[in-house]
Amino acid sequence: MDQVNKIKKLFEKYGLTYHIVKFAAAVYSDNCLNEDINVDQYNDKLQNIFNNLSDLTLKEDMLMKLRKRAITKLADLLKCTRMMTAENEHKLSIRLLSNVALGRGSQISLDIGLAVNNKNNDKTSLVTIRPMRNLSAKEISYYALFNKLDDFLHSNFLTATSEDESIQKTTERFINDLQVNFPSTVSTIFRTGEKISEKTSAIAYCLLCQGVMDVDMSPSSAMEATKYSKYVSLMGVKALKLSLKELKNEETNEKKCNGCKCRNKQDLKEEIVESLCYACAHIIQDLESLDDLPEEILNKEKDRLQFKKMEEQIKDFLL
Ligand SMILES: [Zn+2]
User: How far is CA 25 from CA 41, 126, 275, 290, 294, in A?
Assistant: First the structure.
């Protein structure tokens, strides 16, 4: 409550209009702008997701993606068409390298661009603007100091974690250490990252992070190589005799267990992974149960499966 009061004070001081919404409510509820009575229940669900994830890297990645979803949803509810975020050059450089390490290379331009149009929704488009992306952290703190501006620092479960526990934190230390001796490190990483743009004319978006999915990759791509390496590790010598497609069939056959109920949940997980990007698939595979995911993700997946099933049924009649 103390935090809420601090935020309120700050907004009132600068005469800004504000809405304070609990994170869990924004993730799960469609009615989060009004007081929601189920906030405790949502908090438990959210807590379950993070307790279920074993790795801090995945936790941090999931937090970022859920936060993005929550903000996008609020913007939609408030009928905003522009959204401003406050990342500086330093923060974006860390994000850029972490994204590459996490397998989110194709999403870099969405995550660090100056004005990114989020066109997932057919009806509206939401532009994310990052006005401070060319300023360094130092420049911003000096500006705030000289102009006597107040700010608010929000801490979460990641704030006090060790630097070796997650890819994101290790990347941060790597950049910080380099920056000490080579002051142009951050801007070099940032400028190089700006030149990276995805080649695909995005046809598919990830269900969880709404990022671009790697579809129709060439057989020599890093993605296919990773997939093949995974199959070889799982299947051993057998993998060498079969092609990648055959391997997939073989894998599904092996997983079938005589009509017991355990298959249903496993099935949904496997189906949902097909609608996720490489990095999000990792997160979901680490989750024991999908029950705590936001309803809209599960519903979208069910719709997709329904559509797939229908397509399968009528495919012989199509010209
Ligand atoms: Zn994703």
Answer: 9, 21, 25, 18, 10
CA of 30 relative to ligand 1 center, distance in Å: 22
Separation of CA 126 and ligand 1 centre (Å) = 18
* Ligand 1 centroid to residue 112 C-alpha, Å: 16
Distance 15 CA to ligand 1 centre (A): 37
Answer whether 275's CB lies under 8 Å from 206's CB: yes
Q: Cα separation of 106 and 100, whole Å?
A: 8
d(CA 125, CA 118): 6
The pLDDT tens digits of the residues spanning 71-91 come to 988 998 898 989 999 999 999
Q: What's the rounded Cα separation, in Å, for the pair 196 and 289? A: 36
Q: What is the 8-class DSSP label of residue 315?
A: G
Long-range contacts of 212-220 (CB under 8 A, 24+ apart): 212/106, 212/107, 212/110, 212/277, 213/106, 213/276, 213/277, 214/106, 214/277, 214/278
How many angstroms is it from 281 CA to the middle of ligand 1? 7
> How far does the centroid of ligand 1 lie from the alpha carbon of residue 14, in Å?
36
Establish how many alpha carbons lie within 13 A of residue 176's alpha carbon, considering only the half-sphere containing its beta carbon. Answer: 10
If pLDDT is split at 50, 70 and 90, which confidence band does 62 have? very high
- Give all strands of the β-sheet with 115-118 in edge-to-edge order: 82-84, 126-129, 115-118
Say how many Å lie between the CA of residue 301 and the centre of ligand 1: 14
Contact assessment for residue 213 and residue 110, using Cβ atoms and an 8 Å cutoff? no
CA of 59 to the centre of ligand 1 (A): 14
Distance CA 299, CA 305 (A): 10
Percent share of the chain, pLDDT over 90: 20
Q: Cα 103 from chain centroid? A: 11
277 Cα–ligand 1 center, Å: 4
